[in-house]
Amino acid sequence: MDPAIPLKDIFQWEVRSWSSAMALWRKHLPQHRPAKCLAIGERGGGLSLWLAGEGHKVTCTDLRDFPPETRFLHVKYRVADRIHYQQADATALPFAEASYDLVIFKSVIGALGTKDLQLQAIREMHRVLRPGGVLLFAENLHGSPLHGWLRRRFVSWSSYWRYLDPVDDRDLFAPFHRLEEGTTGFIANLGRTEGQRDLLARFDALIRPLIPRRLRTIWYGAAIKG
User: Fold this and answer.
1) Is residue 141 in some structural domain?
2) Is residue 25 part of a domain?
3) How far is CA 159 from the centre of its chain?
4) Can you give the residue range of the structural domain that contains 95?
5) Which of 12, 130, 164, 223 could be bridged to 176 by S-S, CB 3.0 to 4.6 A?
6) What is the Cα–Cα distance from 183 to 208, expressed in whole angstroms?
7) Which sign, positive or negative, has the C-alpha torsion 184, 186, 187, 190?
């Protein structure tokens, strides 16, 4: 990664918690440059920024058209020439079978609302990957009963968002040959500001061994196509 690209511009919120995925993701980046990458649900453009900064060609997609800020971010770091923008529905990707080396998403499939649609989206990601290709992901988990209660009271999209369970939803990745994954986060997402979330994420790192993985708030991984 270009050392000039800070993690805050890649992950964009609750940065310390979500960037826990980076060590595992880096292990599975394609070795050849440029690889062909597909980033899904990229309204903010952060993951596309990272992959382009690593020297890859990226198709940056979202269900809606992109705001100007997305392109400005890529221009700022001089990677815009490696990024192509396209509207795309994750459940019906408009790309040919086996056309990408890598697919990536962060906090996307929860918005699909049902497990059937989530399964359909993951199958589409599997379809467009070449054999040996990898899906890198990070997604929101249920967390604790307290998280559920607070979301119902204060999070407007909680009425339709389907939060994952790292045990019951492992079958989402059944089409893949192998899954490497981890979980993180607990109280950091309760912070009101990014500074508070950063401080709480440091505390989360200390207590993580005491928190059952099904009570954590972030699931990340790498799923490898056979």
Assistant:
1) yes
2) yes
3) 21
4) 7-224
5) 223
6) 9
7) positive
Examine residue 84 and state whether it is found in any structural domain, yes or no.
Answer: yes
Strands 83-87 and 36-40: unpaired
* Euclidean distance between CA atoms 205 and 203, whole angstroms: 5
pTM, to two decimals = 0.96
- Give the count of domains, the chain: 1
pLDDT per residue as tens digits for the range 189-212 = 999 999 999 999 999 999 999 999
Position of tokens 């009570």?
Answer: 215
Mode of pairing for the β-strands spanning 36-40 and 100-106? parallel
Entry field: residues in the chain: 226
CB-based contacts of 21: which residues, under 8 Å, 6+ apart? 106, 136, 138, 182, 218, 220, 221
Tell me the HSE value of 62 on the side-chain side, using a 13 A CA sphere: 17
Residue 2 is assigned to a structural domain of this protein: no
